[in-house]
Amino acid sequence: MAQRRKIAGTKAPRTKTPRTKARRTNPFEQALDRGPANYAPLTPLSFLARAATVYPDKPAVIHGDRTWSYADFYARCRRLASALRRRGIRRGDTVAVMAPNVPALLEAHYGVPMAGAVLNALNYRLDARTIAFILEHGEAKVLITDREFSDTVGQALGMLRRKITVIDIDDPLHAGGQLLGEKDYEAFLAEGDPDWAWRGPADEWQAICLLYTSGTTGNPKGVVYHHRGAYLNALGNALAFGLTPASVYLWTLPMFHCSGWTYAWAVTAAGGTHVCLRRVEPALIFPAIKRHRVTHMCGAPIVMTTLIHAPEAVKVTFDHVVEMATGGAAPPSTVIAAMEAMGFRVTHLYGLTETYGPSTLCAWQADWEGLPLKARAEKMARQGVRYPTIEDLIIADPRSMAPVPRDGRTVGEVMLRGNTVMKGYLKNPRATRAALRRGWFHTGDLAVWHPDNYMEIKDRSKDIIISGGENISSLEVEEVLYSHPAVMEAAVVAKPDEKWGEVPCAFVTLKPGAPPVGAEDLIQWSRDKLARYKVPKHVVFGALPKTSTGKIQKFVLREQARSAPG
Ligand code: ADP
Known about the structure:
The protein is of the alpha/beta class. A hairpin with a 2-residue loop joins strand 1 (59-63) and strand 2 (66-69).
């Protein structure tokens, strides 16, 4: 039998201390026990309690013309927790929120877990059917919803088989939409006690957030975070992105994306200021940067592209450097250059919902400073090295688990391991086992490893399309196309797009003898059934390339999509 080769650095270590004689006689294990004085379950809730004592009068949250101090912010979160408890919310219950980046959603990142419950922030770009699926699957007991999304939410509630408590966010900065619930959020807070004595989790492994990601299958998967991971990733962010008490963070990244990549807690940990933002629009972003002297913001490359291509009239200039962290796709060199010219410094991050958002960064090296832009942008386009708070990262062959050579050429799968990898997928042990098999989280991203230990993503082995920072399951789009009476076969792949990064491109074979159907018909068909960003932007008709076993060769289609006229 072939001998099993031991591969250095690929084996996850044992986590239990063996009960050996050595342990009994080890002086460091005797009468040195863990207790409340020297051990507390890690939770990001403690960041807020601390900030409220250290900076009670400092602006914690700004929204439009209103500012709340850290003392106010803390009191509002405690009111929320107490109001939820009075409504019977207990440990392990789910509270969903459908809102843009408004104070209520930020408060929910504290108030909901202070009540022991789990926050399910919903992606407001999703369609009613998917929202209904998530509310059902996540078993939300309360839904806090902004009136802007009343159409979608109203339809989704109509599809539910049970009643849930609905609370409306009636933000003075938004006039449209309707109120659907029994109470307004401010009135709901008034039910709660601002001094409520919340208790942190008894166990740091307790769930804190539930976030749905459209993985490779049609139905979204519910990624579960714990208090420990949220605490650690928030500190990892603060360290990676240089947050300090002087930081002013503009919310250009949706909070429903991985708890805003855990910045909902990171900014508070640093004692910085959160500046809320309902819409990611240059006409709001530029003036906000100048008015509040914003120091940090995050977003997918599309956010940077929108800023770069904004009409000159809205490009308010500012005289300080703004740190911009981007992820979801590599920033092109032209984008880096244009952002720098406007006064931004770009940091490139990589991660997934499953890893609490960012878990690698393209750490800056002093000797890159003097490089010409092209060479510097090439370095910066790499996804980089692990966060200080992630335990380990390898690029490996997923079958043998052997790491690939660090030659910048051999492609392997990115694998991560550590305390900021999700607990797993809610009610989906099979998918959890598959994702966490052999002691590593398998990302489905394919990368090379450079001699300086920086990784660079080249492709994805999973079937998703990332458009404007949003994941699209190709399967979901294919299902809609297959439901069209004239379609015999359909396959959807990513097509590179200058504005959105990628857009869905459909390859379709029509049924023989079917009435003639054009690209526009199929696009309209999809529009009626899918969220707008998921609708194919291109449709190509013809036979689909197959393997000898009849499997559609998506890599061939990806190539064709790449070269098809845009
Ligand atoms: P997020 O909500 O942060 O976008 P998702 O889980 O929706 O996270 O998407 C994660 C996927 O996005 C990754 O598996 C990878 O394919 C892609 N991705 C994330 N960051 C980068 C990056 N910096 N460069 C290239 N691809 C990236």
